[in-house]
Amino acid sequence: MITVLGGWMMAKNLRLKAARAVRDMSQAKLADAVGVTRQTMNAIENGAYNPSLNLCIAICQVLNLTLNDLFWEEK
Amino acid sequence: MKNLRYDEYQLKNRHQLAFQTLILIFVLVMTNGLLKESYGVWAPPLLEALILIFIPGMYFAIMSIAKNAYFRKKDYPILVIILFGLAAVLGLFSFVPAILNGTFIFVENGQLTNQVGSLFIPILFGGMVIAIIVRKMINKREDAMED
């Protein structure tokens, strides 16, 4: 579940994937709702890209969740 | 957040590719200098400049297509495929007859000839069309798997 990217270890965002699945939303639909491409959403879920705070907030608003629910990682 | 511009992941990829392209330009300019120093003039000045621009330009275009960073969401890849395909086919007409006649000369007096320049358009646009089609097919397969 860990992706190595440019020396950084990034975990897959399974919570985002699960939240999307609960709402029966495809990556493409969520991507459209927040104004990015499906490939960008895929990269976020796979841990290949660390999204900006603006994009995180937009995703949370569409999924009606908080930043903690989707993006906060306990050490 | 509407889809008028590249999204942030596309921008990140484009910045990364732009930096790689810059490094490629440094390498090509250096190689060109060393080649001229050791071998001498290898192409007419205009062709030499075109080659030094063409290689990094093509690298950036093809790689940004491969990384989904060439088209914005509002763009129409099909229209681009048609236009670029047309440009590639028209470009073919500029040198294929000469090759068939046997009048196309690649190298003369140890230098590339200006005729080589006519290969650039079909190679660039043909390469981009192929890259766009392959990328679209991969995206379609990924979409189908995701659904």
Mind sketching the topology for me?
The complex is a heterodimer of chains A (about 80) and B (about 150).
Chain A: E1 2-5, E2 8-11, H1 14-22, H2 27-34, H3 38-45, H4 53-63, H5 67-71
Helix pairs in contact in A: 2-3
Chain B: H1 8-38, H2 45-66, H3 77-93, H4 96-101, E1 107-108, E2 111-112, H5 120-146
Antiparallel strand pairs in B: 1-2
Describe this structure in words.
Chain A has 75 residues and is mainly alpha-helical. Chain A is 55% helix and 11% strand. Chain A has a two-stranded antiparallel ribbon with strand order 1-2. In chain A, a hairpin with a 2-residue loop joins strand 1 and strand 2. The longest helix of chain A is centred in the last third of the chain and has 11 residues. The radius of gyration of chain A is 12 Å and the shape is globular. With 147 residues, chain B is mostly helical. Helices cover 70% and strands 3% of the residues of chain B. Chain B is built from five helices and two strands, in the order H-H-H-H-E-E-H. In chain B, helix 1 packs antiparallel against helix 2 and helix 3 packs antiparallel against helix 5. The mean pLDDT of chain B is 92. At the A-B interface, helix 2, helix 3 and helix 4 of A face helix 1 and helix 5 of B.
**What is the averaged pLDDT score of chain A?**
87
Secondary-structure element order of chain A, N to C: EEHHHHH
Spans where pLDDT lies below 50 across 5 or more residues of chain A: none
Strand order of the largest sheet of chain A: 1-2
- Proportion of helical residues of chain A: 40-55%
The main pleated sheet of chain A reads as: 2 strands, antiparallel
Assess the beta-strand content of chain B as a share of residues.
under 5%
Main sheet of chain B? 2 strands, antiparallel
Order of helices and strands of chain B: HHHHEEH
Largest contact between chains: A-B, 19 and 15 residues
Kindly provide the radius of gyration of chain B, computed on alpha-carbon positions and rounded to a whole number of angstroms.
19 Å
Overall geometry of chain A: globular
Shape of chain B: flat
Oligomer: heterodimer
- How much of the sequence lies in strands of chain A comes to 5-15%
